Amino acid sequence: MTISRRHFLKRFSMFLSTLAVAPVTVAQKTNTLRNNVLFITIDDLNDWIGCLGGHPQARTPNIDRLASQGMLFRNAHCAVPVCGPSRGAIFTGLQPWKTGNFSNGDKNAFKSIGREFKTLPQDLRKAGYNTYGAGKLLHGNINQYPIDDMFTDYGPEYEKWLPFTDKEIVYTDKELNGSVDKSMIKRKVDRGPGKLNVTLPLNDMPRERNPGSRRIDSFDWGGLPVDDSEMGDYQTAEWAIDKLKQKQDNPFFLGVGIYRPHIPLYVPQKYVDMFPPDQIQLPNIRKDDLSDLPPVARDLALKEYTAGTHKIVVEHNQWRKAVSCYLACVAFVDAQVGRVLDALDASPYRENTTIVLWSDHGWHLGEKEHWGKYTGWERSTHSPLIIVPPKNSQTKYKAGQTCDHPVGLVDIYPTVLDLIHFPQNDQLDGKSLVPLLRDSESKLSDHVVTSFGRGNHTVRTNTWRYTRYYDGSEELYDVQHDPNEFHNLANQAKYNPVKQELKGKCPAYENVDYFVSMKYWKAVIYKDRSKTELFDFKDNKAIPEGDNVASKHPQVINTMLRYIRNNNIKTKYVSIPD
Q1: Same domain for 174 and 142?
Q2: Residue 78 appears among annotated catalytic residues
Q3: Strand 407-408 relative to strand 76-77: parallel, antiparallel, unpaired?
């Protein structure tokens, strides 16, 4: 049998890796490195799971079962409320102001993950662990990372469009050229008699993002007459189950990356049938909810960068159907989680395996008139986090605990190291949550910070949420009495002491002189002027901050600096009036 050169080089690289870690493997036979790690991540899952009570109709018996076995962190928040930077922060244990990874548009920052900034799987692999992964663990194509340095073996990558093939979701030249309205192009998928036969988009809504794109827009939802096995998440779970059935000679890290309920919300019809749209309870909203927000916050709420607009959903009478399909996707995901947990229980590894389940961030379904993520509000930052220590250490930890102290997903990395008795990495920004696992009332931290763009930060405590934007504008919510964050208290003088205290918990940005807002421009002016960044927001698509145009528009930076100098401005956050 012949093998390809690429396959041979991969095998040879894996062989060399085993030689590189051979001196450490002796320690695997001791108690210090014997615990395995099952690492389950779910994309775009907000708190709509039974044990968190985010939606009264959510059905997640398997995730709830897992929570009953360990600790449910009810006040966990992401580092960044968008896929790539959140996952980057979790896997490197570093905040975005350290890595520069604030958005999915920060392409260079992604390249630094696993290279300049080492990751949890790399730590474990060097210690002699077998590190396995499948589905969506990091963001984008897994091959953009040093995968052979991170993983012993990687299974199926995530497939956003399954059960559709790439060809089925790409418009033909005839479809593109024959449509006058590029936002309403239809795509017929017909696999023949008795097989999948649908017209995309399933929700029959016009697209708002990238009209004329060759691919259908992912802001779509609907049930499909397909089996679970035709979905990518089922195949990811199946691969993980197969790993759990295999004999493992070394401790292992098994990462299971589940893609749903990320859009498109395509799911087998039987799950949609569990949530009839006419019986769906919609999120609690307030019609004038945006009236007390600063302009930059309203802009974030109403943009369609990560999904679509609330306006178009309501106009096309799709709100209940979308909520139904989101809940259906969550139920489907829960079934896949259950399959993996059942396989672990049936394996010889259950007694000495730590289980960590998390979502990269939350997701809006109409709250604040927003769909998607990348905001500083609770719906976007709040994430499920469940940690179950190994059964062989349950004398140290009680099952079925909950913790209401604010924690960050950036704390996962040091927590896993602590649970497997691995030396801590002092360079990590997070803190081990093991003290909380032992005593949920331990005083570990009183706040968590989430970033959503350079200079945009929100601080969550047990009682408050404070948000400061890059132009200096603010929000403040008493989350105990106003959990929906309807009433912005930032402009009330009596809350100034609270704001001052929470403002001090935001990152200091000691290397930055100014954050500046001027018309449709956003600038980050560093002490080292050669690093200055400028972002153009006038096209309504620039929220990702991926394209730094400072070198193309030096006159804009000069105008900003001249205004700051002429007005003797001393604050770091500057808003220049039109």
Answers
A1: no
A2: no
A3: parallel
